Amino acid sequence: MQRTRLLSSALRARRAVRHVLVLVAVALLAAGCAPKKNLPPIQPAEACPVPSGATATAAEPEEVVELPIPPADDGVPLTPQEWAALNSTGELDKNLSPEARRDVELHFKYFTHRARGTFERYLKRSQNYLPHIREVFRQQGIPEEIAYLAIVESGFNPNAVSPAGAVGVWQFMPYTGMRYGLSYSWWMDERRDPYKSARAAADYLQKLYGDFGDWHLAMAAYNAGEGKISRALEGTGAEGFFDLRAKNHMLDGKAQLKDETRQYVPRFIAVAKIMRNLESLGFQAPDYSCPPKLEQLRVKPGTDLMALAQAMGQNWSDFSANNPAFRRYISPPDAHTTVYVHPMHLEAATAFLAKPQQRSYAGWRVYKVRQGDTLDRIGKRCGVPVSVLKRVNKASGKLQVGQELMIPGGGDATDFTAQAETPASKSAASAKGGKAVADKQDKSDKSDRSSSVRTRDIAERRATYIVKQGDTLYGIAKAQGSSVETLQKANGLSGIALQLGQKLYIPDAGAEATAIARQEAEAANKAIVASASRGGAERAATPVAVATASKSAGAKPAASQAAAPSGRAIVYKVQEGDTMWAIARKFNVPPKELLRWNNLERDAQLKPGDQITVHAAQ
Fold first, then answer.
1. Where is the composition biased (Low complexity) (predicted)?
2. What per-residue confidence (pLDDT) applies to 366?
3. CB 546 within 8 A of CB 557
């Protein structure tokens, strides 16, 4: 994943003050003002770094600092226990070269000395998630120590966000997350779901291992991208990650691996050595035998999550801690979703979900239409896309003065806590008739807008694309951070052939805009067909380009419904050692589709002789 190092100006100032204090202290000691007994020299407190440049949410601002790559040697000799830990080996850190070992030692000393407090915080977080990640990796046949990559990526922080837009424990970019089943929309961002994202990370790492046949290269590709590593291997003829590092000088300019990628695997190896020697290194090892147990409940489309939280006696901050994927107080109105609840709240949650008609609409606001209002103006004022307002209110473009609109509440995940710390009792007391009434003043309406609202405004203005010579549906989808299937549904397309001048609608990442976009696109494209029949038939009949089936197969977002099987059906007999993932790769089909065609769960166990149906591309 791509990283950018940041240094907060406030922290820079704080660090400068600390250095001044150190100089003052040294001067006082020189003047004889120090106590008579010998004391260790005063050291400035170290700021806490976030791993690999990932920035934490506002709750942990101290983690937004510059992290040297590699860290400088602090000059402190290793203790015998530290030497023993550094010399320990596992499946992934044998036979290191002297240069690789030096870099591993620098990261090892950094996390055990200067950033020890940071590493302890990561350990505390790991208690909630590491057992689940290990189990997922075990099921996928991935070495369990690779679960420690989550420390390198985010420090097990579900809300970690990089400046490049990577999010969550596993730092997925939107497009990559959607490729591996993590839905991303105005309503929710499953990259923040620590459980689903662990599955996606396992699938991605498994795919990368299949590409390169080497776990070190797979991890490097997770950081830099498979294309970057593939080109670097081709340009150097290297046979492994550390060989590639040594030959990096053979590459030109942008083709070279960045320092971050060159240090990514050494940092992981250092973390793995620490994790397998926690007690001897003086860390308090978390109790992984009893991870927090959460119950999964399936909720209907459009469920009022704020009201659900209140029914369980929680404020939004408590609910969001277990369900960081939800970006609004309402679940997506077009899909069933999963919420995680503590067993002690299971009965209350189940009772609430069984009687949705009694919900208090705590997550909604009521807006009364005024003279001159339009859906566009209301949407911008309240920070809600017009397509969402139309969908949840079944509204057309015409509004009546005095008409009441339901406005889904909640801002982006990064400002959930600030918006919703109000306890349930206070929220209920301020509601009128079970509904939270919107402030009628324009001034307060405008104060609700955030930078995220402006981003959505820009995104909506860029929702149209005109097909050019050489375009493919796959290429357009990739460039727009969408998928082939999403564009097909939004534009009423049955295939992947395009025509010059064709207008494509690029829906919001959420599916709420799809129905409207489809209607508009169908109308626009009928005009192209009509024009072709009046003299432009030659142009209309000639597709611009056709994307290969293998390219379009892997870009299916989880939120969209599965398409009907295409291609000829093949019955494959399972061989010794086969897995569903391996069979999917063999036939170049998405693993999720292979499971769907055979009505199997993803953890299904195969036996030699089992028959698997595959719809191979024609």
1. 424-436
2. 77
3. no
**CA nearest neighbour of 331 among 359, 356, 304, 351:** 304
β-bridge mates for residue 340, sequence order = 296
Q: Which of 82, 153, 190, 485 is catalytic?
A: 153
> Which pair of tokens denotes residue 14?
């704080």
DSSP symbols for 346-385: HHHHHHHHH-GGG---TTEEEEE--TT--HHHHHHHHT--
DSSP 512-575: GGHHHHHHHHHHHHHHHHHHIIIIIHHHHHS-S----HHHHHT---TTSPPPPP-SEEEEEEPP
Token pair belonging to 57: 């949410």
Element (H or E) spanning 571, and its range? strand 568-573
The answer to whether 327 and 186 have CB atoms below 8 angstroms apart is yes
Residue 191 CA to residue 184 CA, distance in Å, equals: 8
Where do the domains of the chain lie, and which CATH numbers do they carry?
9-275 (1.10.530.10), 295-457 (no CATH), 462-552 (3.10.350.10), 568-616 (3.10.350.10)
pLDDT, tens only, 47-84: 223 333 333 333 333 343 345 577 889 999 999 999 99
Q: 3-state class of 513 per DSSP?
A: helix
Give the pairing type, strands 295-299 and 337-341: antiparallel
What burial class does residue 156 get, using C-beta atoms within 10 Å of its C-beta: 0-12 exposed, 13-18 middle, 19+ buried?
buried
For 255, half-sphere exposure in the C-beta direction (CA atoms, 13 angstrom radius) is 14
The candidate with the shortest Cα–Cα distance to 456, out of 337, 557, 327, is 327
153 catalytically annotated: yes
Q: Is 203 exposed, middle or buried (0-12, 13-18, 19+ CB in 10 A)?
A: buried
Are the CB atoms for 434 and 361 separated by under 8 Å? yes
How many Å apart are CA 441 and CA 183, to the nearest integer? 35
In tens, the pLDDT along 500-522 reads: 878 887 775 433 344 444 444 55
Tokens of 489: 């549904």
Whole-angstrom Cα distance, residue 495 to residue 516? Answer: 20
